[in-house]
Amino acid sequence: MEDYFEKAVDKKTVYDITGIQFMNFNSLFQLYAMRKNNDTALEHAEKILFVPDALSYMLTGKMVCEYTIASTSQILDPKTKQLDAKLLQSVGLSADNFGPMVNPATEIGTITEEVQRMTGLGAVPVIAVAGHDTGSAVAAVPAKNEKFAYLSSGTWSLMGIETRDAIINEVSYDRNFTNEGGIEGTTRFLKNICGMWLYERCRKEWTDAPKSHAELQAEAMKQPAFQSIINPDDAMFANPSSMVEAIQTYCRNTNQHVPEGYAEICRCIFDSLALRYRQVFGYLKEMASFPIEVLHIIGGGSLNNYLNQFTANSLGVEVLAGPQEGTALGNIMLQAKASGQVKDIWDMRRIIANSLELKHFAPQDKEVWDAAYEKFVAICGE
């Protein structure tokens, strides 16, 4: 990634064009590395397909470039909603190397005769859904109006808002926020936060911990709050050989209580995630053009009642948890839209909200969490 900025296009220009946060696995840098290393597959490729589009191609024989997945590549300009010629040229490609851009809820084609023979199905239509999983998940957020933020909670925690236009300015650049394509021309303005990766990596090391999440987390809740706080997005937690040791080292280096045992470390992770969520939520409130009145938590992490309550306490807003399988629901609803069974995104969200029971978490212990956030900022920085 750094080599690309030095020899191809500078970092600020890339962000001004794409509005995408910098992560070293973004497609732009992968393609640059392939070109730099004289990769023969890239050299001889006629077309390049993102993974969801490759699956559509195998089913239909049609090559397309679905907007939401293309938007995460750091090659697409959200203002024109097309792949950027300058960035493509920097990796020796052109728009001709990709299929035509299509939006979610577009029919790509029907399954091929070969697939029909293999499956025994007829000419079933294949729909371009929001191919990026978070794109489909956010489409399934059961919000009543635009005044919401979402937290897609899993290995990663993706916190953001839904906007009509991309937010690309000095503040979003400095804070490394990203603008990814949503459905119906919306933008998912969000930030990636290291999520349950911390917890899951530690669980692999805890040989003495209870096997069930419920028992393990109940033990963690018996520990003192906020005695150890980490910044979940510190580089040392990206992929350490031992996550337990990395957390202990961070606390030791910041002159805090060094957590010992699974219960103390689990409590440290949950406290710290909730406080980091508050920090990012504060950034979103500054940059949003509307008041944010509620946080919707979706994905597997929405089942974590302890962390949901901590998040409500930390942010000081109501938290609504669910659905767990947001990506699948959003996918289904976009297929329903393509077939004319739902009208638009708000019709989709109304149906989802009426089809499941959301869990409500109201803020508690404001003064305690305000003091804890001051400690978090003092340790981890703005």
Architecture blueprint of SSEs:
Elements: H1 2-7, H2 11-18, H3 27-36, H4 40-44, H5 51-60, E1 65-66, H6 67-70, E2 76-77, E3 82-83, H7 85-90, E4 101-102, E5 106-110, H8 113-119, E6 125-128, H9 133-139, E7 148-153, E8 156-163, H10 170-174, E9 178-181, E10 187-194, H11 197-205, H12 213-220, H13 243-253, H14 261-287, E11 294-298, H15 305-315, E12 318-321, H16 326-338, H17 345-355, E13 359-361, H18 366-380
Strand content: 5-15%
Biggest sheet architecture = 7 strands, mixed
Bulk shape: globular
The total beta strand count reads: 13
Low-confidence runs of at least 5 consecutive residues: none
Q: How confident is the prediction overall: mean pLDDT?
A: 97
**What is the percent of helical residues?**
40-55%
Strand order of the main beta sheet, please? 9-10-8-7-11-12-13
What this model shows, in words?
With 382 residues, this protein is α/β, with parallel strands linked by helices. It has helices at 2-7, 11-18, 27-36, 40-44, 51-60, 67-70, 85-90, 113-119, 133-139, 170-174, 197-205, 213-220, 243-253, 261-287, 305-315, 326-338, 345-355, 366-380; strands at 65-66, 76-77, 82-83, 101-102, 106-110, 125-128, 148-153, 156-163, 178-181, 187-194, 294-298, 318-321, 359-361. The strands form four sheets. A seven-stranded mixed β-sheet has the order 9-10-8-7-11-12-13, sandwiched between helices. A two-stranded parallel ribbon has the order 1-4. Strands 2-3 form a two-stranded antiparallel ribbon. The longest helix is centred in the last third of the chain and has 27 residues, at 261-287. The model has no long low-confidence stretch (mean pLDDT 97).
